[in-house]
Design a protein that fits this description.
This protein is of the alpha+beta class. It contains 2 helices and 5 strands. 22% of the residues lie in helices and 22% in strands. β2 and β3 form a beta hairpin. Bound molecules: guanosine-5'-monophosphate and zinc ion. The site of zinc ion has 5 residues, from α1.
Amino acid sequence: MDCIFCKIIAGEIPSTKVYEDEQVLAFRDIQPAAPVHILVIPKQHISGCGAITAENSAVVAHIFEVIPQIAKQEGITDFRVVSNQGAEAGQTVHHLHFHILAGRTLKGMC
Ligand code: 5GP
Ligand code: ZN
């Protein structure tokens, strides 16, 4: 499958990892939109948050357990979590990911 994030998981494309376990990988965004900009992804390919189902949602719950651990590790208490679904919402990589943004005042919703 021609998926950049699956290639990052496979180690075929380098990334700056901040967290990894059996189900999840987190790494720094290549084009940071804030001083802290981390992407948290499931190792299982899910195309986006529009493809979350009862069958695959356990990893999403796990991601939301991991996010506070990453925040603690990064020393941030105030942060935003964003997931874009579809081109109109700004999704450019079609592998489910949650952006963690922090380190500056984040204004507005978009
Ligand atoms: P989206 O626009 O789909 O919500 O977010 C995709 C994010 O992935 C973007 O913020 C983009 O900078 C990041 N990105 C795209 N390709 C790579 C890559 O090869 N490495 C890393 N670390 N981030 C990437
Ligand atoms: Zn993928």
